[in-house]
Prior knowledge:
alpha+beta, two-stranded parallel sheet
Amino acid sequence: MEVLHGGYSTCPDRGGGIGGLGLAAALGQQGVDVEIAERRTEYKLLGVGINQPANSLRILGRLGLLEQIRSVGFAYDRNEFHGAVRKTLI
Ligand SMILES: Cc1cc2nc3c(=O)[nH]c(=O)nc-3n(C[C@H](O)[C@H](O)[C@H](O)COP(=O)(O)OP(=O)(O)OC[C@H]3O[C@@H](n4cnc5c(N)ncnc54)[C@H](O)[C@@H]3O)c2cc1C
């Protein structure tokens, strides 16, 4: 990725995933206009839950997105990992 030095006001960004959108949001906070190029013509939802650990939520919070995320999710305080025959591993 090209390193941005002072004086740049626009930036191309490749990919509309969380990485590309996160970069665009962070650059936008610094006053940089970002143009995102996404090769897919539509988003395909997988229908799975999304787990976001604390380190991820901290960054999303810095991007000003934490309250919006919390409004559609819930907190939990433990994980369980199961084997193929549902035996609890951890
Ligand atoms: C089934 C499943 C469940 C998951 N569950 C979780 C979870 O619960 N929690 C979690 O944190 N992570 C989860 N992940 C992982 C998470 O989805 C990825 O780590 C994350 O999406 C990676 O984001 P990214 O922006 O780097 O890449 P991507 O999401 O892959 O985005 C890259 C984008 O760039 C586009 N692109 C690529 N090349 C080009 C190009 N040349 N020009 C234009 N566009 C381009 C692609 O089309 C794509 O939309 C899961 C993954 C899967 C598959």
